[in-house]
Design brief:
With 140 residues, the protein is of the alpha+beta class. The protein contains four helices and six strands; from the N terminus they run ααββααββββ. It has one domain. Strands 1, 2, 3, 4, 5 and 6 form a six-stranded antiparallel beta sheet that branches. It is elongated, with a radius of gyration of 28 Å.
Length: 140
């Protein structure tokens, strides 16, 4: 009887150690169990617009010439109430997200937004800029 008790104790102890080991392995490898990816792409006339160019625009430093050289001709040029020129550029912002949890769950979402970026110039130097976003329904 004592031998049986000892054997059961050892078996339970081994089961607990095995379960704890499995738990730690899963915990440490959780980076590969849960995966998330998000990608944002800007396009104009079906051509990709590099984000580094968009991010390099600086108020007080960027000129009209630099903007046209790097982003192309604006979609529209307007004069505002203060007599300054506004250059309007239209882009499509495509955002895609993917999430998966090992073999249990996966989901994908896509969003498409029209972005109109307004660049306001005082003489030839950028005074300010802002963006307006409009969601576009995506047909599945």
């Amino acid at each position: 009887m004592a031998k049986n008790f000892g054997q059961r104790f050892v078996n339970k102890s081994m089961n607990i150690k095995f379960m704890l080991s499995l738990f730690y392995v899963l915990l440490l490898s959780s980076c590969s169990i849960v995966e998330r990816k998000t990608e944002v792409i800007y396009t104009a006339d079906d051509k990709r617009v590099p984000e580094k160019i968009i991010n390099s625009v600086r108020v007080g430093k960027t000129t009209k010439e630099w903007l046209v050289e790097n982003l192309g001709e604006p979609n529209k040029v307007e004069e505002n109430e203060q007599g300054m020129e506004d250059y309007l550029y239209e882009y499509t912002k495509n955002t895609g997200s993917y999430t998966s949890v090992f073999l249990i769950y996966s989901a994908e979402s896509k969003e498409q937004i029209t972005v109109t970026v307004h660049f306001e110039f005082d003489a030839d130097i950028l005074k300010k800029y802002w963006a307006q976003e409009t969601a576009i329904p995506i047909a599945e």
